[in-house]
Structures are given as C-alpha cells and as structure tokens.
C-alpha cells in the first residue's frame, strides 16, 4: 500500500492531515534555520522544505501543479528569502538567541504559508 493511502487510513480527517504536513515542515524549517552557520544560507535550506510542503498539500487536495503554479511558488519563496535576509544578517551575530529567534521566524513563516495554501486550495481548488 502506498504511503499516502496509509496516511489517509490512519488519519481520516483532512484537517489533521494538513496540520501534520504543515507542522512537520515548520519543525524542519526551524531546525534548518537554527542549524545553519553561514549568513543567508538558512533561506536556501528552508525554500525546498516549503516547496515540498506546498506539493504535499496540493497532493492532499488532489490538485495537480501547472508550470505557472510552480513558478509563482518559487517567486513567493524567493520573496520570503529576501524579506528575512536583513534580519538574519543582524541576528546571526547574537549568540544562542539569534538562532532561537531565526528558528521561530522560520517556523512561523512556514506555518503561515502552509495555512494560506490550505485556505486557497479549499476556496479555489487550485494554487493559481
């Protein structure tokens, strides 16, 4: 049996499956943000996590990606990188607390992005 079918078998509620996907991606993003040591590299580590989360959510709603949806998702992720870049450079030099703050910001941004995607998929049935 495929993993997706097993997931649906043991977690029958779609809201709980979406929450599991989003929370897992948020934890991974927080870990990536806290673990990176090169300034600006956490954005590079977080982007694939967020794209994988959006892909899993689209798969949960059985929405197939188009080229335009992939491009717009990548542009949004790049915009997130640029927006957090300045704060990351400042926080990089604050020992311990800087890592914790960056991890919190990464988790929060990933949570917000995930729930925004769920809302969009429920309302429109598409990512575009």
How are the secondary structure elements laid out?
Elements: H1 3-10, H2 14-35, H3 41-60, H4 67-91, H5 97-124
Which residue ranges are poorly predicted, with pLDDT under 50 across at least 5 consecutive positions?
Answer: none
In helices, the fraction of residues equals over 70%
In total, the number of domains comes to 1
Distance between the termini: 31 Å
Radius of gyration from the alpha-carbon trace, in angstroms: 16 Å
Number of helices: 5
* Total number of beta strands: 0
* Structural class based on helices, strands and sheet pairing: mainly alpha
Q: What best-fitting shape do the alpha-carbon axes yield?
A: globular
Beta-strand share of residues: under 5%
From N to C, what is the helix and strand string?
Answer: HHHHH
Mean pLDDT, rounded to whole units?
A: 79
Main β-sheet description:
none
Molecular structure report:
With 128 residues, the protein is an all-alpha fold. It has one domain (15-124). 80% of the residues lie in helices and 0% in strands. The chain has five helices and no strands. It has helices at residues 3-10, 14-35, 41-60, 67-91, 97-124. Helix 3 (41-60) packs parallel to helix 5. The chain is globular, with a radius of gyration of 16 Å. The termini are far apart. 26% of the residues are buried.
């Amino acid at each position: 049996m495929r993993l997706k079918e097993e997931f649906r078998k043991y977690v029958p509620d779609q809201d709980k499956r979406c929450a599991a996907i989003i929370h897992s991606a948020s934890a991974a993003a927080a870990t990536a943000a806290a673990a990176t040591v090169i300034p600006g590299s956490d954005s590079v580590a977080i982007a694939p996590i967020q794209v994988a989360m959006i892909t899993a959510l689209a798969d949960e709603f059985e929405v197939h990606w188009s080229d335009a949806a992939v491009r717009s998702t990548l542009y949004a992720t790049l915009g997130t990188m640029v927006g957090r870049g300045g704060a990351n450079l400042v926080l990089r030099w604050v020992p311990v607390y800087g890592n914790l703050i960056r991890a919190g910001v990464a988790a929060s941004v990933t949570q917000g992005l995930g729930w925004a995607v769920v809302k969009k998929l429920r309302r429109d049935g598409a990512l575009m």
